[in-house]
Amino acid sequence: MIAQSSLTKTYQKLVQSNKLLHDPIQLHAITRLQALANTIIQQNSTSKNWIQRALSAVIRSNTSKGLYLYGDVGVGKTMIMDLFYESIPLEKKKRTHFSKFMLEVHSRIHRERLLQPINQLREQNRTNIASLSTFRQDPVNPVAVSLSEETTLLCFDEFQVTDIADAMILRSLFTELFKRGVIVVATSNRAPEDLYKHGLQRSSFLHFIPVLREYCEIHRMTSDTDYRLIGTQDNTRTYFNLTENKSISYNDMFKRAVKKEGVEVRTSKLEFLGRELQIPESCGGVARFNFTELCEGKHSAADYLQICQYYRTVFISGVPRMGRNDRDPARRFITLIDMFYDNRVYLVISSAVDIEELFDLSGWNIVNTNQELNHTNRELEDELQDRGGSVTTKSLFTGEEERFAARRTLSRLRDMQSKQYKEETGIQF
Q1: Residue pLDDT, tens place only, 111-167
Q2: Among 106, 250, 301, 372, which residue is least crowded by beta carbons within 10 Å?
Q3: NCBIfam families per the record (predicted)?
Q4: How far apart (Å, rounded) are the C-alpha atoms in residues 80 and 85?
């Protein structure tokens, strides 16, 4: 018999030990997740006979609802979801950042497209190569099937839709996942109706919203408190304003990191999916870039994810104040921070401005001219062709989405300086 989830008790113990502050908003969300946890555990009880398990599978696919938590940054959504995830004693469960998950989905779709003609020939025992060009099948369904076989529970952090390629497949992907009994728990800064707001071809995306509402309870967390601002800071600085007088510099930190690795600094490169990513300075698990190298080229979430997987400590110099004329590098910087934060990368930054001044959002309005829109469309078409559905992500942030994402990034940068975050990275200087 699988043990009962103790999510509520775990939360109460954290409050009693002063590791968390009591928050009725968080506790209310915890009770909803506790109810879901109990349902999942009951449905997956190992004590059931085969008839009960079969009936449970039918019930799960028809009635079980996940949970979609949304609210402002820093209210504790991710922390609560992680407590829930750890409380579920299932082997087939997965917790991931939503953008990372969609990169994996697009990669699988790309592979499925490549394999479909071969599979068609095998199934029909054909040898006529000419028939390959006429074979077309939606590759999303088999990808959803394989995902449903791998996991019972999917937990997504930062559920957001800014990519038209994601927007166009969400309905078919999640409809199939839900029908096959996959339970989804997600955190987001947006209500379902505000996802992909003002995005290109949004009318096609809108069909996803009722699907999400049908299979997930929607729960809003409202609070005036950003708990990331309350986190205990330590004495090891990881954000350097170059105009300040300080006892230790950004370069001193890099020297410490290199000395700890004990190997020579060199130029290297990462190769993946037929692409090359240049690393100007690397030393064991440490890498150093300047802002231009990381955010002013054609890098994407896939590139930043590769950096996370190979380097646990990353230095970035020359981070500027970003305004209307810097929207593309700003978007990449936002994506980079999302990836680094979710993968607990130890990040050290040098900039000419304080964290609170990194973004000048005054001119970030919604794209509203034909010239801008046509330019965006051309870029999108070019990049979608380049990636074949798997490599480069073109995010279509509107001005409203950009401002929201920028505020989230500032909150995360503050949290990345906290003692708790640094301990979670496992890196010490």
Answers
A1: 888 876 666 655 565 555 544 444 457 889 999 999 999 999 999 999 989 888 899
A2: 372
A3: ZapE
A4: 9
CA distance 170 to 163: 11
Residue 360, SS3 per DSSP: coil
Domain identity same for 254 and 370? yes
What pLDDT does residue 50 have?
Answer: 54
The C-alpha atoms of residue 53 and residue 39 are separated, in whole angstroms, by: 14
Region 269-273 average pLDDT: 83
Q: State whether 105 and 214 are in the same domain.
A: yes
Same domain, 15 and 91: yes
pLDDT band of residue 5 (cuts 50, 70, 90) is low
* Nearest partner of 171 among 137, 179, 388, 301, judged by Cα: 179
Query: Can you list the positions of beta strands (E) in 309-424?
Result: 313-319, 346-351
CB-CB contact of 171 with 207 (8 Å): yes
- Residue 129 token pair: 């190569």
Range of the domain at 84: 7-227
Q: Three-state DSSP class for 154? A: strand
Q: pLDDT for 197-223, tens place per residue?
A: 878 888 989 999 999 999 999 999 988
Q: What token pair was written down for 42?
A: 């009951």
Structural contact between residues 75 and 187, judged by C-beta atoms closer than 8 angstroms: no
**In Å, how far are 37, 75, 177, 206 from 174, measured between CA atoms?**
21, 27, 5, 13
Coil, strand, or helix at residue 184? strand
Pairwise CA distance, residues 173 & 143, whole Å: 8
Hey, which residues does 290 pair with through a beta bridge?
A: 317
What is the residue whose two structure tokens read 């879901």? 36
Q: What is the band of 403 on the pLDDT scale with cuts at 50, 70, 90?
A: confident
What whole-number distance in Å separates Cα of residue 174 and Cα of residue 170? 6
